[in-house]
Amino acid sequence: MKRAMRFLIFYTALFGLWTLLAELKIWPPYLFPTPWGVAEALYAGFQDHSYWIAIRVSMQRVLIGYGISVILGMILGLGVASNKFLEETMGGLLVSLQSLPSICWWPLALLWFGLNQNAILFVVIMGSLLSVTLAMEDGRKQMPKIFGQAGRNLGAKGFKLFWYVLLPASLPFIVSGLKQGWAFAWRSLITAEMLYLSLGLGQVLMMGRDLNDMSSVIAVMFLIIAIGYVVDGVVFKGMERHLQNRWGLTPAP
Amino acid sequence: MSTNAQSVPRAFPLPLDPRFPARSPKHGPVSVDLRNRSQSSPIPKVGLSEICLSYRTQSGERLLALDNINLQVRPGEFVCIVGPSGCGKSTLLHLIAGLHTQTSGQVLIDGKPVQGTGTDRILIFQDHGLFPWLTVGQNVEFGMKMKGVPKVERQERTRHYLQLVHLAKFETSYIHQLSGGMRQRVAIARALATEPDVLLMDEPFAALDAQTRDLLHDELERIWSETGRTIIFVTHNVREAVRLGDRVVLLTFRPGRVKSQFPVDLPRPRSLEDPEVALAARAVLDELRDETNRSLEAEYRNGIKPHIEPGVEA
Q1: Which residues of A touch B142 (CB under 8 A)?
Q2: Domains annotated on chain A, with CATH
Q3: What are the tens digits of pLDDT across the range B238-248?
Q4: Which class would CATH give B39-120+196-314?
């Protein structure tokens, strides 16, 4: 109750401040829109289906890109974690590569794939692959050894050992890395879309700028935040809770 | 090391305690400790032949963990291995299970050398090693699934083995919902379900409270006599070893060698409180004490960890 009150007070104040600043008309409305201007833009965007299309296109891309990252990252991470040579050589490279913003791959992607969807996917993959790889590597190391031993002992080998034992055993240790990978994938996607006419949310955002329509820019920003938040709060929180229940871990306070 | 071998009596006269009548008349006066008695069966179920294991410590030293271990286990025999911390008794089980490889020597099953893991030898861990993401039933099914046993048969066998350990009602529970004793019983059911010839048990009851352990001793003894499996059971608890085993094998402290063997010809079922068990345990304990002292001395002097971490091999 108290928490809800604080929540309400904070957002009412924020909303009030925004309205006040907009109403004072210090800046012209096309630079600093009112809350209802943004609400109207949102409504109009959904009404003419342009936002629906943008969301669908963006979600499709991020799911494909992130999916590839997860699969590749798990294989890579497992390889690095279980091979001393790879760990010594590639381990450091992976960490240093992580400091490179994924959009730096954009020029290369353009040259390699041309100005198309694949270039965007490449940037998304490069954005999230590293965090998934590092998470998997870390998870594989943190995972109690006994699971792998028990699995081998009971006759699991090769892919079966990975699929039925190592992967489920490491999930609680990699779920936060998977979450981080998702956040990177989502950001990389929007950035790449902003650089290239592409139907996605990033492009709708840039269109708002080109038309001097700050209301729709902010409306799309809200959409981007909302989708990121929902995936994080519903998909990953749900996954964490599920794992905690299964493993009998006490949920983090 | 063998200096005190003479000081240990060769056989124990049993005190005639009216509270504990002899349960099996054919055993007559029970005698213990026919040390290093030769085995009658020509082909042992498990044969360890000149097993050596050395590994490199973090400081680069080469450490001999197991030194020339020779051991034969008859089919259906219940052998207990005792020794101080750091004698490599758990490591030995891991070698038999194929989870690690010895530096030299051979592990033989039915006279044939083994390589790697195999479902003919299943290891039961002290920390049970059950999979928390699977239900009790799925855990028991796991080994059969890896083997490719058809689903219907798998479910049948799962139910059978869960009944054997009295956990049929918990088939759909998850591991964290069970008590420590129940978890170990699931681990036993999971191991048995793959129908191994040899059960390797690595201090499986060490983390349990005394009452639970007593019950599990009874259950294990019953399961062993019902299924006729060969069991190699590692423990640091001598009483437990004597209560369960047909034979107790004592390993020395680092490097692990077979110091002596004690056949336990006591009638079954036994109990930890049986005076015969206590008496037989005394003989083993007397010899074990030297090794434990060496283990502790090494620990105090060098501050070294008494436990050998297998896996890092030189």
Answers
A1: 154, 156, 164
A2: 38-247 (1.10.3720.10)
A3: 888 888 888 88
A4: alpha beta
